[in-house]
Amino acid sequence: MTGTGQARKPDATPTLLTGIPERDVNSILEAATPTKLLPNRMILTGGEQATHVFMLKTGIVKYYRLTHTGDEVLFGWLVPGNVFGLASLLSSPVAYLGSAMAITECQLYVWERDRMRKLAQTYPQLAENSFRVVLKYLTALADRHAGLISLSAEQRLADALLELGRRTGQVHSAGVEVEITNEQLGDLAHTTSFTASRLLSRWKRAGALSKKRGKVIIHTPESLVSD
Q1: Are 208 and 224 in contact (CB under 8 A)?
Q2: DSSP bridge pairs for 172
């Protein structure tokens, strides 16, 4: 691996804007309000009425849901190009499915609900792409649930960590650094934080990775799952 502190690059064209002519993409982006947030700032709260659509330009966002007992269920890490708040496109007001919080400093495109609905009418491909985004998220959730049956906890944890490295990792000379806690990684892999900690410690002893507070540095990805 080459470079130091280099973030993984997102896809050139976000799914939301795929297939839309450049001049129309510019019009859509110009209709948004550019917003910058510091780390640990809330972007939206699950259960509140959906009033805006968001697309991440830079940074990492945590998307999750709180249970009625106050426990946090992590849906995933959002990266540049990812979109959320698409419930705002529906004609009847509904609530946000989950909550979103900036993990790092973030820049976002933010569209007010009525503005985005008008854009979707003006550019039908935008409405179709919004549906594609929702399907991609549903597919990811379905894959995670299928893994509960077909994969071991070790395989699920390795897959979750490697996917995070691919999507959000910072590339250093020593490996790929991922911002994640044991508990969060366990949530993504549908296992306990105890199991996540135990497996991470084993991979650490084998030299496959190293740990810092709230971070994992992957040294040899191929060593994470035993044959």
Answers
A1: yes
A2: 175
